[in-house]
């Protein structure tokens, strides 16, 4: 009888040990789930903040200088994320040249990197560059999001009028 009692105590001890191990495994897996969900919430918050920066340009009327600021911001973002194609942003700007008497023509430019010469050749008017861009008005016609990560990856602007001609 003494052996049976010892066997029951050993079996009870083993059972309690197995239950403690099961509870510990459950707690550890629960902690990793909580950690994962916190990480996902943090990533969603960062994505929302990133997109909000570009979505704020969806106003009715933007001056050319605001578009130039956005192009600079997207170029900086692209340079910081140069190794990740999913995080690249393209800004498409359609400008109008000519006048109503001779006929207007539209040109669309795509800005994705730090191509300073293209940037300056389009938005440069000698010493009057800032005033020149201040006189141009643009409208954000479309904002596209990357289907994989939900980030803004394309922004389209269309020039639609000039305040005055110089």
Helix content: 40-55%
Distance between the termini: 110 Å
Q: Based on DSSP secondary structure assignment, what is the total number of beta strands?
A: 5
List low-pLDDT spans. Answer: none
Q: What topology, given as strand order, has the largest sheet?
A: 1-4-5-2-3
Descriptive notes:
The protein has helices at 2-55, 64-80, 116-122, 129-134; strands at residues 62-63, 90-99, 103-111, 136-145, 152-162. The protein has a five-stranded mixed β-sheet. A hairpin with a 3-residue loop joins strand 2 (90-99) and strand 3. The chain is rod-shaped. The protein has two domains: 1-55; 57-162, no CATH class. The longest helix is centred in the N-terminal third of the chain and has 54 residues, at 2-55. It is 51% helix and 25% strand. The protein contains four helices and five strands; from the N terminus they run αβαββααββ. The chain is α+β, with helices and mostly antiparallel strands and 166 residues long.
């Amino acid at each position: 009888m003494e052996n049976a009692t010892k066997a029951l105590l050993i079996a009870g001890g083993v059972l309690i040990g197995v239950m403690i191990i099961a509870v510990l495994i459950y707690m550890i897996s629960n902690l990793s789930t909580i950690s994962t969900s916190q990480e996902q919430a943090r990533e969603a918050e960062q994505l929302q903040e990133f997109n909000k920066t570009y979505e704020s340009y969806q106003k009715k009327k933007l001056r050319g200088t605001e578009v130039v600021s956005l192009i600079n911001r997207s170029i900086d973002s692209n340079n910081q994320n140069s190794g990740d194609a999913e995080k690249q942003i393209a800004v498409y700007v359609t400008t109008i040249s000519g006048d109503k008497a001779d006929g207007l023509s539209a040109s669309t430019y795509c800005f994705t990197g730090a191509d300073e010469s293209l940037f300056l050749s389009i938005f440069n008017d000698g010493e009057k560059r800032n005033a020149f861009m201040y006189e141009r008005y643009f409208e954000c016609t479309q904002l596209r999001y990357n289907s994989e990560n939900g980030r803004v990856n394309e922004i389209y602007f269309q020039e639609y009028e000039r305040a005055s001609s110089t």
